[in-house]
Amino acid sequence: MKTDYFLGLSEEGFHRVAYTEWGVPTLGNPPIICVHGLTRSGRDFDELAEYLSRQGRHVFCPDIVGRGESDWLRNPLHYTYEQYIADMNVMIARTHASQVDWIGTSMGGLIGMVLASMPQSPIRRLVLNDVGAQISATGISRIAKYAGRDPDFSSIEEAMRYFKSVLDGVGKLSDEEWRRVAERSVREISPGKFVSKTDHGVKIAPAKSKMAWQIMLHPLKAIEGTLFDIDLWHIWRKVTCPVLILHGKQSDILLPATIQKMQQIHPQTDVIEVPEAGHAPALMHTAQHQAIYQWLINSI
Question: Source organism's superkingdom (predicted)?
Fold first, then answer.
């Protein structure tokens, strides 16, 4: 693994977008870009990226601006999907490839879906980790309670307990795996003081993006649990590449009825259930890595 960055551009000027890179380019295999969820970072994909690189794949895992090792924006209102999509277009260009495979958890999946829906999209195959064309109001409400609210911690053990409580949908993880989650989520700024690697301003992002404005424009649909349906169903109908949905069976974000409708609209959509997980599977286990890799090599 190596680390690097590129420069994204916002109304504030240039900002650094950090990423990890695994493996090297191989003939006939497009690079894979893995993009994390709302309050997470690209290090969530360490185990998956390492596995895929051992199979000969070239993998990039960016930290979306405001997270991980990327810069934070001065104005939290600039944390929008439009900004993330523009930055990820630069990430695609950085791979120097004409096509890429995309693996996205939650927010990262939505970014991938939008990019895959566009004319001449470079996304060849799309893996959506527990996210789809309709988002449950219950799940959004739960995430809103902790997004951008991470406290400071006096130890990694304290951070572990916190992330176990707010990320309880990731599935069954060992204590060592939870330690890795915590260590990737915080930085020690002084002896005995650990702080989040996610800007607290990130919590404002969904409410200011065009997609999430549908909540406010269509409150009755929000009550029914149909939050982004107008924009995202419209986007989903434009996706033509093969898609794999990883569904946490206990998810409060991606519901079975949404998956069924997605498959009706786009028959080239496969589904893998993750029985022990909710939102969203951590993708830290070898069985999940193998399933994703097999789908990537068999789906075209």
Answer: Bacteria
CA angle 43, 47, 48 (to 5 degrees): 95
DSSP assignment, residue 153?
A: B
pTM exceeding 0.90: yes
For the chain, domain boundaries: 2-149+205-298, 151-197
Q: What angle do CA 42, 283, 52 make, to 5 degrees?
A: 75
State which fold the 2-149+205-298 domain adopts: Rossmann fold (3.40.50)
Orientation angle between helical segments 175-185 and 156-166, nearest 10 degrees: 100
Question: Of 20, 24, 34, nearest to 54 (Cα)?
Answer: 24
Let me know: does 79 contact 65? Beta carbons within 8 Å: yes
Read off the pLDDT of residues 237-288 as tens digits, 9 standing for 90 and up.
Answer: 999 999 999 999 999 999 999 999 999 999 999 999 999 999 999 999 999 9
Q: Are 34 and 59 in contact (CB under 8 A)?
A: yes
For residue 206, give both structure tokens: 């969904």
